[in-house]
Amino acid sequence: NAGVMQNPRHLVRRRGQEARLRCSPMKGHSHVYWYRQLPEEGLKFMVYLQKENIIDESGMPKERFSAEFPKEGPSILRIQQVVRGDSAAYFCASSQSGKVEAFFGQGTRLTVV
Amino acid sequence: SQQGEEDPQALSIQEGENATMNCSYKTSINNLQWYRQNSGRGLVHLILIRSNEREKHSGRLRVTLDTSKKSSSLLITASRAADTASYFCATDAKGNAGNMLTFGGGTRLMVKP
Known about the structure:
B: 5-stranded antiparallel sheet
C-alpha cells in the first residue's frame, strides 16, 4: 500500500503563473487535508475535503486558492496568479473515515520567482 | 501564543542524552500527536495520545498529556544522531470536523555524535 503521494516534489513558477499541486491519498482513504508550511514554521491547516465535497476551507485564502477532490483522481490544490509569498511547502494528508490518524505525503515545495 | 506551541524552539544535546520537548495548547482536544520532520522532508507520525490517556510509550519515546494544564511532553531517551530533526505537536480540537490538526512551531533538535 503506497503512502500518500504528492507531485511534483518541487515546483518553480514565475509570478502570475498558476501552480497545480496533486495529492493521491492512501488506498481506502476518503479524507484529504492540505497544509502549508513556511520556512522554520509549523504546518498551517488550509482545507479539508472528502470525495467531491469541501468540508472546511477556513484556512485557505479566499482569493487565488482553490481545492478539489473529484470522484476519480487525485486531490488538486490550485493557486492562481502566484506571488512570492506563496513560496512554501504544501503538504497533503489523508485519513480513513472515522479514523484519527492522518498520514502525510512528502510535500510539494513551491518556489515563486 | 498559538495552539500547539512547543518549547524549547531549539535543543542541542550529546548522543546518549535524553531530550525533552514540551507542547502547550489552548482548546479542548480529542487527541494530541507528535510528528518528526527531517530537514526538507515530509512528516513522520511518531505517537498519538488520546485526551483520556496520561502517558504513552513507543520504543525510546515517552509522551505525557496533562489536559488540566493543556500541555504535553515528548521524551526521547538515549538519543542518537539520527534523531536530529524538527519535532511538532499537533492537536485535534474537539468540535472539529474530520481530523484537522493544529500544529505548533516545532522544536529543532540537534543530537551531536
